[in-house]
User: Which sequence fits this backbone?
């Protein structure tokens, strides 16, 4: 299976703390994306990082990519209760189409 | 002014029935997708259309038939529903077939009795 894996499966932190989620994948990629899914809702795109990039920032989010280790991490700084959600990484599998291959997801709970 | 909208939000039906899920996007995107999310939250692509043409078909049983009447709509018809079809089905769209963010609908929760 091409499916990526995320670690940890679940994470519980206090508001104000940082949260780090890791993603490992199996094939070469063109880009890697991170998505958030609130309970009962669709996925929302957070960040796209291309295979020739090592780090990208967006607000309180920081994503790193290590293609030699086939891994990525998502850091959320100064977390808020509203950050409570599932977080998924997704790759394109190195193919020519924009077919997303999702990881298993990390369920983040931020306690107020 | 929802970007990607799916109907219905919930669908409860008996095994063996035929049902359809509709999806519309008002983003002016060329490419649309159907994903299936199982009870363990595993998301898998099923189909993708670009400008009404099928470009991805991921070994989905042929009981599932997508239809794209125009590039803003992608419907999913499922024949002879089985218990294993119970899942949340998500529609998504992207600007084109390049490597870009995808915009997702809120899903259709299909429950087979």
Assistant:
């Amino acid at each position: 299976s091409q499916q990526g894996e995320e670690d940890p499966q679940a994470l519980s932190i206090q508001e104000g703390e940082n949260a780090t989620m890791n993603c490992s994948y199996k094939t070469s990629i063109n880009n890697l994306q991170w998505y958030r899914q609130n309970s009962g809702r669709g996925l929302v795109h957070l960040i796209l990082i291309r295979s020739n990039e090592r780090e990208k920032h967006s607000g309180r989010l920081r994503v790193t990519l290590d293609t030699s280790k086939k891994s990525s991490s998502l850091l959320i700084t100064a977390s808020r209760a509203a950050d409570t959600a599932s977080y998924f990484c997704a790759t394109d599998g190195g193919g020519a189409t924009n077919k997303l291959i999702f990881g298993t997801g990390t369920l983040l709970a931020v306690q107020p | 002014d929802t970007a990607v909208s799916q109907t219905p939000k919930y669908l409860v039906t008996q095994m063996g029935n035929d049902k359809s899920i509709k999806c519309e996007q008002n983003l002016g995107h060329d490419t649309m997708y159907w994903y299936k999310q199982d009870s363990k939250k595993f998301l898998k692509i099923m189909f993708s259309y670009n400008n009404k043409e099928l470009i991805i078909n991921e070994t989905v049983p042929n009981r599932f038939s997508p239809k794209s009447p125009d590039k803003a709509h992608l419907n999913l018809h499922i024949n002879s529903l089985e218990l294993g079809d119970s899942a949340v089905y998500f529609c998504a769209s992207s600007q084109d077939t390049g490597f870009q963010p995808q915009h997702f609908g809120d899903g259709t929760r299909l429950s087979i009795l």
Residues 82 and 110 of chain A are 8 Å apart (CA to CA). Chain A touches chain B at residues 3, 30-31, 33, 35, 37, 40-45, 48, 50, 86, 88, 92, 97-102, 104-105 (CB under 8 Å).
